[in-house]
Amino acid sequence: MQPKSVSKEDVTQQRCVILGRVGAAYGIKGWFHLHPFADDPECWQHVPTWWISPIEPDAEGLAPWRAVVPESLRVHGDGLVVKLTQIDDRNESEALRGYWIGAPRESLPETHSDEYYWADLLGLTVVNAQGDTLGQVDRMIETGANAVLIVLDASGEQPRERLIPFVGEIVRHVDKAAGQILVDWAADW
Q1: Does the predicted model carry a pTM greater than 0.70?
Q2: pLDDT in tens, 46-71
Q3: Hey, which bits of 55-179 come out as E strands?
């Protein structure tokens, strides 16, 4: 069943920052759980249009997106519950389970100097304190405890993937302008 708000019409192939993923329906009036991929998802209520896709976006956020309008959002447990203006009953919200929620980067609130959208980190070169290049950020995952950089090192015969926790004790500096992340991480780890 395809909810009326996300019919096959009005599909746009574009890049979006992934905000979260739709979980189970919540109640009978079209609300659903949203599992956020950010520390401050409450600020998303100020973004007038969200984009939704049934297909997982690629590393750059490219997917077939459809516009939706958030009506209400509130914190619930360790996530959020959300109501979209076009979704009015439980069946429609259940049909959205597993969909990806995103927004174009330019429509999101600006970050503070020590905050980053995951999309801003993709493609940055990761270098350790000894000057070794460890690779480039290919993607990120959330483990529950913290975010993890998945760094792809294609310099050797066999490409190597490093999983580096994105925490202050390890990530020393992010320089988006220089395209680099400095980490306290040995090359042979």
Answers
A1: no
A2: 888 999 999 998 877 789 999 999 99
A3: 62-68, 70-76, 79-84, 100-103, 125-128, 133-142, 147-153, 160-165, 171-175
